[in-house]
Design brief:
Blueprint lengths: L10 E7 L14 E9 L2 E4 L2 E4 L4 E5 L5 E4 L6 E8 L1 H10 L7 H6 L1 E5 L4 H18 L5 H26 L9 H16 L6 H7 L4 H12 L3 H19 L5 H7 L5 H12 L3 H6 L2
Antiparallel strand pairs: 1-7, 2-5, 2-7, 3-4, 3-6, 5-8
Helix pairs in contact: 3-4, 5-7, 6-7, 8-9
Length: 283
């Protein structure tokens, strides 16, 4: 289901996935994510930035920025992902004075590290593979399994931090015209999704034709314009539900750009798989 990424555990690891999870489209989540691109072709949209990924690229995300891979149906697509709860790791990080390792997620929200598949990235890949093996190994149970996974994740966070200090991507000052237009469209939507929007109103605001606006955004991001608008609204709803428990659902719907509480309720349940009230009250 579009917009729905369910993380049922404090840590989920997938090493070198080669098939595309077609139920994961535009989405956000509370967990932090380390995304490691290995091979193929992928254009990744995070918030209002577009990255054409190269093998060895690492994306770090706090999860709440709307994000989506744009994959050609006939292209290879190999990546590894780690989703983890920062709260689950806090005590382990405190014990080794390592809370600063989460700063990149908390302060930047998302970033790209371009390693060009150097030796350090290959060592990181081995750690990710080992982490998945421990997660899947039923011989590890209870406290022992949790200790092993936390130690490995700590090593991964240290390695990522070191790679980031040396190899952080410097975004080129000049981008291709289509990419620039798509990013401008995404940025405009991010700043105005609470208002009533249409493809025509967005195109007029950016001095583009309606057809070009629709076509270039879909080509560069994989989103339709209105999918992205609704994704931004849904993301805002989640943030308000989690951070403002006293705010009424009616006010949340209005502040997020929904024209009616009934439309909001139907859309939220369809995309998230539960009611907004249940989402707010979940443990």
């Amino acid at each position: 289901m579009k917009g729905k990424l369910v993380i049922e555990q404090p840590l989920m690891v997938h090493y070198k996935m080669e098939t595309y999870w077609d139920y994961i489209d535009y989405h956000s989540h509370q967990e932090y994510e380390i995304y490691f691109f290995h091979a193929g072709s992928c254009r990744y949209l995070i918030h209002d930035q577009i990255y054409d990924l190269e093998p060895g690229d690492i994306l770090l995300m706090d999860g709440m920025a709307l994000h989506k891979p744009n994959i050609s149906p006939d292209s290879e697509y190999v990546r590894s992902t780690i989703h983890f709860s920062p709260q689950w790791m806090e005590k382990a990080l405190e014990a080794v004075d390592g809370l600063h390792l989460l700063a990149v997620f908390e302060k930047l929200h998302y970033c790209l590290i371009r390693t060009q598949e150097n030796e350090e990235s290959k060592e990181l890949e081995k750690l990710v593979q080992r982490l998945e093996e421990v997660q899947r190994n039923n011989d590890f149970t209870g406290v022992g399994k949790e200790a092993n996974t936390k130690i490995l994740l700590l090593q991964i966070l240290v390695a990522v931090n070191q790679l980031g200090q040396v190899h952080s991507l410097k975004i080129p000052s000049k981008k291709a015209e289509k990419e620039m237009h798509a990013e401008n469209i995404a940025s405009f939507i991010q700043g105005n999704f609470q208002m009533k929007l249409s493809i025509e109103s967005i195109a007029n605001a950016l001095n583009l034709s309606k057809s070009y606006t629709s076509h270039v955004f879909k080509e560069m991001t994989g989103f339709t314009i209105m999918e992205y608008v609704m994704g931004c609204r849904l993301n805002r709803v989640k943030q308000l539900l989690e951070n403002e428990p006293e705010k009424t659902l009616k006010n949340i719907a209005h502040e997020s750009g929904f024209e009616s509480i009934s439309h909001f309720s139907r859309y939220f349940r369809e995309k998230v798989g539960m009611t907004a009230k249940a989402y707010r009250n979940r443990e």
